[in-house]
Design a protein that fits this description.
By secondary structure, the protein is of the alpha+beta class. It folds into three domains: 84 residues, OB fold (Dihydrolipoamide Acetyltransferase, E2P) (Beta Barrel), CATH 2.40.50; 73 residues, DNA polymerase, domain 1; 59 residues, Helicase, Ruva Protein, domain 3 (Orthogonal Bundle). It is built from eight helices and seven strands; from the N terminus they run βββββαααααββααα. α1 packs across α2, α6 packs across α8 and α7 packs across α8. It is globular and about 50 Å long. The N and C termini lie far apart (39 Å).
Length: 224
Amino acid sequence: MIGLIVGDVVFSDGQEVVLLTNSGVGYQIYYNRILAEGKRHALYIAHVKREDIEELYGLDSLKNKKLFEMLRTVKGIGPKSAYSLVSTLGFEQITNAIILDQKKVLSQAPGVGPKAAAQIILDLSNKIQKVKIYSDRYQGKLIRHSSEVQEVELSSPVISVNNDSGTEKTLQSSFNMKLLDEALMACKELGFKESQIIPLAQRILEENVISKAEQLVHLVLKEV
């Protein structure tokens, strides 16, 4: 079973990512965040095998991976529902909802109805505390790649650790403005107004690492 993948990001659209490993194998992984293409990244993996299909789900921490796997033990909860719960509500909200019998909170996740929420609480109320012992972030182990040592964080997209922070922020700000201009132009051509697009695009740029205008447009159009 695959538990962790470290590789270079060759594709990322906010729904899935492809990581190219040192061995030359590219793994297609369900992952709901944008990662900068060309950067090195590591993800914990929930490896799901079902009859004639295998699926990989990317999680940012060991704690979230274990929560995903525990949710999968609940009758009627498939991998997509479990991933929807973890990525939509987050660890603390899910565990608190189970402990406090809050079915409505769990039902906020897409694909999880009242019956499924009730079943989750019934099955996991006496088990959920066990998941809290796991780490909620990657502990900064060093990954050797191309004779260089890089620190790979699972809790956030990888950035260069050697650049001057002020210069890096300035360059990133300029790059984001360029992406915003290109995305705004594309959206206006589709008939959308600046007042609709700019606030969404700015928020998305703050919350994600975007490397292409096409990625920004894709995420903006999902929310318009």
